[in-house]
Amino acid sequence: MSDQLPESVGYRIIGHVDDFTSFPASVTIDRDPYFIIQTTGQEDAPSEYKLVSAICPHAGGVVRPWENELICPLHYWSFDSTTGQSTNVPGEQLDCRPIQIHEGQFTIAVSS
Ligand code: FES
Fold first, then answer.
1. Helix H or strand E segment including 105
2. Residue 60 CA: which ligand 1 atom is closest?
3. Ligand 1 contacts CB of residue 56 (under 6 A)
4. What pLDDT was estimated at residue 41?
5. Which protein residue has the closest C-alpha to ligand 1 atom 3?
6. Which of these ranges, 1-5, 97-101, 104-108, has the smallest mean pLDDT?
7. Judging by beta carbons within 10 Å of its beta carbon (0-12, 13-18, 19+), is residue 103 exposed, middle or buried?
8. In what residue span(s) does the Rieske domain sit (predicted)?
């Protein structure tokens, strides 16, 4: 069995960068809710964007932005809105994947 990752066959466009003016930004992909989040940039590591699922890993609630967090209304697990990592349940985090910017569009890699 190969240990190589599957080859990317392309990118899927999420939306034009200029259409998103604040983060986390709510988006729907294939009827599933997500947020585009922006990581906190630092001098040696500029900020980047990630796509995080809005589905809570506890029992499937849909998280909502509240101040600097994404909060699940079912049992109040909370997640940092710049990383997707839980702020009150150690080791838990929202599903997260990288976002690239191509020709002014937020995109995610699509593999076969
Ligand atoms: S389903 Fe989100 S905290 Fe329980």
1. strand 105-111
2. 1
3. yes
4. 72
5. 75
6. 1-5
7. exposed
8. 11-108
Pick the CATH number of 8-111 from 2.102.10.10, 3.40.50.1820, 2.30.29.170, 3.40.50.300: 2.102.10.10
Ligand 1: distance of its center to the CA of 62 in Å?
Answer: 8
Ligand 1 atom at shortest distance from the alpha carbon of 76: 3
Share of the chain above pLDDT 70, in %: 91
What pLDDT score does 40 carry? Answer: 77
What tokens were used for 68? 């600097």
The span from the CA of 79 to the CA of 94, in Å, is 7
